[in-house]
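Exercise 7.
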Amino acid sequence: MKHIQIFGLLWLVFFLADGNAQKSKDIERRNVAIFLYEGVELLDFSGPAEVFAATSIKTKEDQWTSLFNVYTVTYGTDHIKSQGFVEIIPNYSIENCPMPDIIVIPGGATSESRKTPEVIDWIRNSSETTEVFLSVCTGAFLLGDAGLLKDQKATTWYGSIERLKETFTDTEVLQNVRFVDNGKIVTTAGVSAGIDGALHVVERLISKDVALETAKYMEYDKWHPNEGYVVGEE
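Solution. The predicted structure, written as tokens, is:
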């Protein structure tokens, strides 16, 4: 009887382990749109882009397969220059990009984008189908302009905390946190905090183990999952 029980237990462990692996063709990849514009902060967008592009799992075929399809998006078709020295050719415009599941909105010189109705409308309209918005630094102002920070908690780069409070008085602005997670809306502090926010999104949508593997691959040992604020987990 003991032999039968042990055999049955081993079979169950093998079955569960095999069941947790997926064939590469069965994996549904989420689309991640990285919104770019003239004067965008380099690490604001490249940090989260690296996180999502590097996130992968091992399949039944013993291959590492990416869980996210990452692409860049801009308004119009012009080349983008980041911080005055990195020129980027975006993959798509906001008019023709694949429907995103996740939209990353980095900070930087946001003034022109904030004054462009097509950009604000794209963000606002995308909220009907997008699973997660992730803003970095002053990218939070674009979310606010689209009406997506109303009655939400949010954060931004430390130098813009007061301006965010004054601009969006119906938003509770938090400081001294790496990210704030409202569910659909995740805002982060400045520059490198976008990496923390993206890893948090991976943890939330996939698993903590996968997020930790991604952080290890990036040698980003600064990530501490509890340095953010998750609404509802107070």
